[in-house]
């Protein structure tokens, strides 16, 4: 996988093997080292290096995403300080120069533009140099992050409240009994009283010690959290203002990611170390009992085929299995899960999943993550013969972070494209009912990673929509 364990493409690239200084001084990342003689650079005259651009870099056929922050305050390229910006005439050349403790030699990232299909889109060559010598070469595409053409801030949905977190970057929210539980990676979890959704009030927070928390789920008075270091965390929230830690499971620990609960069963997606789904009996919610560990037999961990997110409906588990695609299993007997089918596609990055009965068909909505992200409507009525019956996509530079299905309405957290509400009564022709553009490039923290914007969405049935936004925190919406 590209970004599941790192915050930015820049961090990913820094893990690649570096070069050592050769006897002959190299200048592979200087402007004159790029042969652009066959490029059509006439479009660069209309390109403006301003705002925030999302970035897709292709190295040996594998895509990785990042961003460029052209704002005057702290300009960045792939999360590192932007030091060269030549965007004028027929030239698009930007670079960052830096050194770190892990890379004591001078390092440079470079984007050399070859063409600009439009004023807001550039394509060209990417290089990384260590001591002036290129050790990574590939191509890139960059696009200026903007609202979709012709859209206003909102249509068909209104913002009720906005609550910035005290710190950290929120990634998801779960709402139960008038309280919102917001997970925020290394900053842990924040609990808000949302009995008055227009005025959320923080009542508690839990700060982990050198850990990352992804998802949460509440059953009765018990809170479950997926943890990068400890797997499944169990808390007593009979008093939401004073969560009490009860346990961490299993032992030895695993990496936890996605969480799903159906009745008295909990499913923990664990990408590492075994790429498995841990199934717990939670009939006694405070004492989860491990029933089995399910592994998709024909998946290959070394190719990034690992479980990330999942949902359960009517004894079927649907797994967003990253490079594998969608996997479906029968979990009627939680001690003996059995594979039912799968849906694979080229360059899969399968993550968010939502499933429901629509008409006479069972439809799974699955989304890839990354450049050219799209939502696939899959007919899973017969899981041995899954077929794609429809799709929905915005621009190639925005990705889908979360999905929630209520009846035939699909609520989409679409990162920089904000909240999208789709009517899916006919999955082959999705119809957008409403949207809210949450993206503002002037918000704090923008332009540091590709995965920015609205990333989690829940519709608990109280008449409101709850969502998390990387810079703006907890957002509450309402459909008029």
From TrEMBL:
Superkingdom assignment: Bacteria
Protein name per the record: Lipoprotein
């Amino acid at each position: 996988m590209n970004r599941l364990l790192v915050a930015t493409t820049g961090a990913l690239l820094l893990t690649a093997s570096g070069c050592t200084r050769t006897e002959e001084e190299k200048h592979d990342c200087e402007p004159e080292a790029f042969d652009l003689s066959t490029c059509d650079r006439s479009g660069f005259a209309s390109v403006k290096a301003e705002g925030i651009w999302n970035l897709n870099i292709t190295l040996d056929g594998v895509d990785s995403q990042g961003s460029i922050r052209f704002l005057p305050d702290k300009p960045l390229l792939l999360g590192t300080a932007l030091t060269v910006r030549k965007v004028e005439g027929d030239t698009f050349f930007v670079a960052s120069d830096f050194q770190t403790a892990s890379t004591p030699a001078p390092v440079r990232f470079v984007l050399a533009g070859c063409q600009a299909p439009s004023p807001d889109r550039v394509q060209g060559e990417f290089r990384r140099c260590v001591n002036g010598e290129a050790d990574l070469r590939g191509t890139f595409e960059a696009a200026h992050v903007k609202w979709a053409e012709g859209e206003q801030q909102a249509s068909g949905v209104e913002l009720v409240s906005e609550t910035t977190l005290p710190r950290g970057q929120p990634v998801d929210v779960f709402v139960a009994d008038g309280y919102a539980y917001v997970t925020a990676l290394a900053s842990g979890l924040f609990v808000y009283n949302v009995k008055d959704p227009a005025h959320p009030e923080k009542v508690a927070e839990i700060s982990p010690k050198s850990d990352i928390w992804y998802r949460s789920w509440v059953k009765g008075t018990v809170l479950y959290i997926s943890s990068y270091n400890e797997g499944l965390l169990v808390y007593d929230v009979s008093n939401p203002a004073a969560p009490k830690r009860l346990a961490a499971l299993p032992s030895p620990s695993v990496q936890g990611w996605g969480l799903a609960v159906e009745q008295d069963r909990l499913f923990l997606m664990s990408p590492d170390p075994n790429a498995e789904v841990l199934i717990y009996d939670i009939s006694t919610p405070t004492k989860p009992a491990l029933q089995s560990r399910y592994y998709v037999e024909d998946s290959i961990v070394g190719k990034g085929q690992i479980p990330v997110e999942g949902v359960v409906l009517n004894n079927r588990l649907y797994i967003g299995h990253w490079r594998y695609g969608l996997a479906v299993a029968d979990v009627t007997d939680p001690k003996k899960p059995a594979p039912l089918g799968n849906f694979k596609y080229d360059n899969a990055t399968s993550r968010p999943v939502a499933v429901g009965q629509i008409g006479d068909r069972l439809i799974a909505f699955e989304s890839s993550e990354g450049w050219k992200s799209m939502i696939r409507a899959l007919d899973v009525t017969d899981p041995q013969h899954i077929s794609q019956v429809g799709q929905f996509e915005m621009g190639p530079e925005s990705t889908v972070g979360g999905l929630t299905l209520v009846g035939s309405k699909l609520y989409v957290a679409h990162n920089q494209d904000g909240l999208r509400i789709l009517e899916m009564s006919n999955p082959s022709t999705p119809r957008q009912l409403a949207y809210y553009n949450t993206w503002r490039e002037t918000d704090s923290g923008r332009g540091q990673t590709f995965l920015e914007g609205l990333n989690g969405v829940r519709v608990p049935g109280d008449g409101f929509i709850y969502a998390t936004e990387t810079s703006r925190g907890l957002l509450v919406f309402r459909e008029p």
